[in-house]
Amino acid sequence: MAKAVPTGQSIEARIVEALRGAREELYTEELAEQLGLSRHTVSKYLQVLYAKGAVRMRRVGNAKLWRASDLAIAIRPLLPEDLPRILQIEERLQRLRRITLPSPTVPDWEDERPAFQQTIEYHLECGDPALCMGAELDGELVGYILGEVRLWEFGGGEKTGWIKILAVDPDHQRRGIGRRLGEELLEQFRRRGIRRVRTLVDSYSGELIAYFRSLGFQVLSMLPLELSMDTEAGPWGRERLPSEDDRKDSKI
Predict the structure, then answer these.
(1) Alpha-carbon gap, residue 50 to 28, rounded angstroms
(2) How many domains does the chain fold into?
(3) What gap in Å lies between CA 98 and CA 106, rounded to an integer?
(4) 27: how many CB neighbours lie within 10 A of its CB?
(5) Contact 77, 131 (CB under 8 A)
(6) Which CATH number is 29's domain given?
(7) How many whole angstroms separate alpha carbon 210 and alpha carbon 200?
(8) Please, where are the H alpha helices in the chain?
(9) Which pLDDT belongs to residue 105?
(10) Is residue 230, in this structure, part of any structural domain at all?
(11) Are residues 31 and 140 in the same domain?
(12) Contact 143, 167 (CB under 8 A)
C-alpha cells in the first residue's frame, strides 16, 4: 500500500505540536531528526510558521533555536501608556530607512520626532479608539495603525477613511502583523459605512505599495501636489509675493 505523502498543512501542524511538546527550544536539526524529515523541509516550513507568528526564533551564533509562540497576536486599542514603545518602534524604522535610502530622502529623526509625537498624542487623546489599534505579541506592542474618517475629500461629499500611520517593529516584520492590523482597521471602516479608504505612499516604497495592493488598494488617477514654503520654493520664493503681472504671466 502506498504511503501517504504529508501535506504542507500537516507538516506545519506536526512542527508546532513538536515545539509545544518540547521542554526547551529546539535547533532546526533536532526538530528535523525528531520528525523524520530533512533539514531543508523543516527549515522551509519553520519560515512559513514564523511569518504567521505561530513560532518564535532566537539566534545563537549562526544557528536558530525555535519554540512555539506563547500567545497569538492580539489586536487592541492603543493606550496613552503605549507612547514610549510607539516612539521606540518609529525610531528603529527611521534608522533602517536612513541605511536603505539616500540620506536626503529620509528626514532626521530628531527633527521629525516632535511633530510625530504630537500626532500620536493627538490620536491617543482625541481619536476614535477603534481606529487607533496596536498589535501585541507575548505582552509586547510590536506594531500599530492609525486611521481617521474625513469629510469632503477632494470635492466629494462622502465620508472617506484614511490610513494615516502604519508601523511594525523590524524584529517582527514579515509575520502577518501588518496585514492583521490593516484588515482590522478596514473592518472598522466597514462598520461605519465607509465606502472608500485612502492612504499616501512614497513612490519608492515598493514593499509598502505591494502591502496595500494585497489589501485591495488601487493606484488613483489623482496627482499629489506639494508646495515647499521655504525661500527657494515656487516661482517667486518666499521673499516676494507674486504681483498681478506675475499672476497674468503664469496664467494663474
Answers:
(1) 13
(2) 2
(3) 6
(4) 14
(5) no
(6) 1.10.10.10
(7) 13
(8) 8-21, 28-35, 39-52, 83-100, 109-126, 177-191, 206-214, 244-249
(9) 62
(10) no
(11) no
(12) yes
For the chain, how are helix, strand and coil distributed in percent, rounded to 5?
45, 20, 35
Kindly report the CATH number assigned to the domain that includes residue 207.
3.40.630.30
Q: In this structure, are 142 and 193 located in the same domain?
A: yes
Sheet with strand 140-150: strands edge to edge: 74-77, 132-137, 140-150, 160-168, 196-198
3-class SS of residue 5:
coil
Residue 201: all three cell numbers together: 505612499
Instruction: Quick: pLDDT tens for 104-124.
Output: 666 788 888 999 999 999 999
Domain encompassing residue 81: 74-214
Q: Is residue 154 part of a domain?
A: yes
pTM of the model as a whole: 0.66
Q: Same structural domain for residues 62 and 78?
A: no
Tens of pLDDT, residues 12-56: 989 988 988 887 889 999 999 999 999 999 999 999 888 777 888
Mean pLDDT estimate for the chain: 84
Residue length, the chain?
Answer: 252
- Which residues, other chains included, contact 76 with Cβ-Cβ below 8 Å and sequence gap of 6+? 133, 134, 136
pLDDT value, residue 194: 94
Q: Report which of residues 202 and 198 the model is more confident about.
A: 198
86 lies in the same domain as 188? yes
Cell numbers at 227, concatenated: 508646495
d(CA 122, CA 210): 29
Cell 521606540 belongs to 88
The terminus-to-terminus CA distance of the chain in angstroms comes to 83
Compute the distance between CA of residue 19 and CA of residue 178 in angstroms, rounded to an integer.
Answer: 25
Same domain, 46 and 82: no
Asked whether residue 251 is assigned to any structural domain, the reply reads no
Q: Measure the CA–CA gap between 55 and 68, rounded to whole angstroms.
A: 4
